[in-house]
Design brief:
four-stranded antiparallel beta sheet; single chain; mainly beta; Methylamine Dehydrogenase, Chain H; 31% strand
């Protein structure tokens, strides 16, 4: 569930009600009989409230014991654009992009080998440079490992998967908890990644720590040994 608040105003206590979920879910039509065509009308973004959180979708999915929804592992906003361009790293669904302040989103990485995500960051000095770490490091029972760090040099249009020194991001089934891009590097090529093994089916606490790149993700060097 992705939510947006169009103002920082806070309502009085007792009025912070959770947002209502959309009444219908288009995915429930998957069980229709063969030969039956189901036309799903385009979604209309709801009006954003200035006092409470507004549910803007997607609708929750019915699975097992009840309604469930995906979780967001990372979010990055491009401050140079208006309306703001927003990038979201979904824990199990890759990178998504909004160009209308979060009203609608488009998937960017569905063709990548791994979709579990742990972090995303935009260079503060080069908004076209984006780093997205695969593998969710939140220690949930269904957190999944990654395959490396995705890097884009064109604002998310294309991505290159980087797998670290000797491919350890992939071979050790690592996760990425956080990425920070050095604001003193005008190119956006210097970045740091906190790498761990909290994902499901880890290969052990191998090669975890803080990694640094000065080449825009082409190469990474381990600079810290702490487990993250």
């Amino acid at each position: 569930m992705i939510s947006a608040l169009s103002a920082f105003a806070q309502p009085p206590k007792g009025q912070m009600n959770p947002p209502a979920l959309p009444a219908t879910d288009p995915l429930t039509n998957f069980g229709a009989a063969k030969g039956v065509s189901t036309i799903i009308p385009p979604l209309v973004p709801p009006t954003l409230s200035t006092t409470i959180w507004t549910a803007i979708g997607p609708a929750s999915l019915s699975a097992g014991g009840g309604n469930v929804s995906g979780r967001i592992a990372g979010l990055a906003v491009d401050p140079t654009t208006s309306p703001n361009v927003i990038f979201v790293a979904a824990a199990g669904g890759g990178v998504w992009k909004s160009t209308d302040d979060g009203a609608t989103y488009t998937p960017l990485t569905d063709n990548q080998i791994r979709l579990p995500m742990g972090a995303i960051a935009i260079s503060p000095t080069n908004h076209l440079k984006i780093y997205a770490g695969t593998g969710e490091g939140n220690n949930a029972a269904d957190s999944n490992y990654g395959d490396g760090i995705l890097v884009s040099s064109d604002g998310g249009s294309t991505w290159t998967l980087t797998t670290g020194p000797g491919g350890v991001f992939s071979s050790s089934r690592l996760t990425v908890s956080q990425i920070s891009v050095d604001p003193s590097d005008a190119t956006g090529n210097t970045a740091y990644a906190a790498v761990g093994t909290a994902g499901e089916n880890p290969a052990g606490f191998l090669n975890t720590g803080i990694y640094k790149t000065t080449t825009g993700g082409t190469t990474w060097t381990k600079i810290g040994r702490a487990h993250v």
